[in-house]
Amino acid sequence: MSTDVTVGAQHAYEQLRTAIVENRYPPGQRLVEQRIAEELGSSRTPVREALRMLEAEGLVVSERNRGAMVRPLSPTEVVDLYGLRIRLESYAVEVATERATETELGELVAAADACSEARRSADADSVEGVRLLHEANRRFHDAVITAARHRRLATMLARTVDIPLVFQAFRTFGAAEIERSDTFHHLIVEAMCRHDATRAGALMAEHIAQGRDAVLDALAVAE
C-alpha cells in the first residue's frame, strides 16, 4: 500500500469513526463506498481500507452481497457489553486504588475537576457540548486504567468499552444525569484516596450502570 493510500485511509477512518461515534451514521446504516468517497473527496480505495479498520474495531460489520454497515445494536448486546465493562472497570479501579501513586491520584483529582468544569460550561444539547463532556469523561476513566498499571486488563477494556455507546449515553443524559455522573467521579476518587478499594469498585459499577440504563432507555424510545 502506497503512502498516499495509507494517509488517505487514516483520514477516512478518522472521519467515519467520528460520524459513527456521534451517531451521524446510526446503527444499521449502510456504508456505500462510492457515496462515502464522494463525501470525503477521495477514491474508493482508502474508504475500503478504512471500513476494514472499522470492522476490525467492531464498529462496522460486512455481509455477503450486501456490503458494510454500522454494527446494529440490540438491548441484549448493550446489556452484555455493559455487564462485562462493569466487571472489568470495577476491578481496574480496585487495582488502581492499591497501586496509584500520589501523582496518579493527583491526576485523577484533576480529571474529576475537569469533568465538573465541562459540566458547568458545556451545552449538553449540542454536539460540541457532548464532545466536551465525553472527552472529560474519557480522561477520567483513562486515568484509572493508567493508575492500575495492568497491561492485560487495559487491553481487555479497550476491546470492551464501546465508545459510540458512551457517547450516546451522554447525548441522552439530562442535567440531573450529568451532575450525577460528575458526582460519581468525585466519590470514586475520594474512595481511592482513602485506599478503600471495595467502595471504589462498587461506586464504579453503579456509575457505569447509569450509562447502560440511559442507552437502554434511548433504544426503547427508538423502537
Report on this model:
With 223 residues, this protein is mainly α. Helices cover 78% and strands 4% of the residues. The chain has helices at residues 3-21, 33-40, 44-57, 75-99, 102-121, 127-148, 151-160, 163-172, 175-193, 197-222; strands spanning 30-31, 60-63, 67-70. It has a three-stranded antiparallel beta sheet with strand order 1-3-2. The longest helix has 26 residues, at 197-222.
Summarize this entry quickly.
The chain has 10 helices and 3 strands; from the N terminus they run H-E-H-H-E-E-H-H-H-H-H-H-H. The protein has 223 residues and is mainly alpha-helical.
Radius of gyration: 19 Å
Low-confidence stretches: none
Task: Characterize the main sheet.
Answer: 3 strands, antiparallel
Structural class: mainly alpha
Could you tell me how far the N terminus lies from the C terminus, measured between alpha carbons in angstroms?
43 Å
Mean pLDDT: 91
Q: How many helices does DSSP assign? A: 10
Content of β-strand: under 5%
Widest beta sheet: strand line-up: 1-3-2
| Overall spatial form | globular
Specify the helix fraction band: over 70%
Order of helices and strands: HEHHEEHHHHHHH
- How many strands? 3
Primary descriptors:
3-stranded antiparallel β-sheet; 223 residues; 10 helices; 4% strand; 78% helix; 3 strands; mainly alpha
Topology, please?
Blueprint: H1 3-21, E1 30-31, H2 33-40, H3 44-57, E2 60-63, E3 67-70, H4 75-99, H5 102-121, H6 127-148, H7 151-160, H8 163-172, H9 175-193, H10 197-222
